[in-house]
Design brief:
By secondary structure, the chain is mainly alpha-helical. It has a domain at 1-39. Helix content is 52%, strand content 0%. The protein is elongated. The chain starts with 5 loop residues before the first helix and ends in an 11-residue tail after the last helix.
């Protein structure tokens, strides 16, 4: 079974990112990977995906008292 090299990850977080140990331990592995530059090569979001997100998570609900 292979696992994370926690000592190396903590060292990178402290030395390269300037994080305190408590800040390091509050991160998820995905957040740490992104901060260390391992974003995984994701592409920019397209208009269609943006529209899907807008529909799924609207900024305001109708009848919320703003009218």
């Amino acid at each position: 079974m292979s696992g994370f090299d926690w000592a190396a990850l903590l060292r990178a977080a402290v030395e390269r990112l300037g994080l305190r140990p408590a800040e390091f331990w509050a991160l998820t592995p995905a957040e740490l990977r992104l901060m260390l530059g391992g974003g995984g090569g994701s592409r920019a979001m397209g208009r269609a995906r943006l529209e899907e997100l807008i529909a799924a998570f609207p900024d305001a609900v109708q009848g919320d008292g703003d009218d």
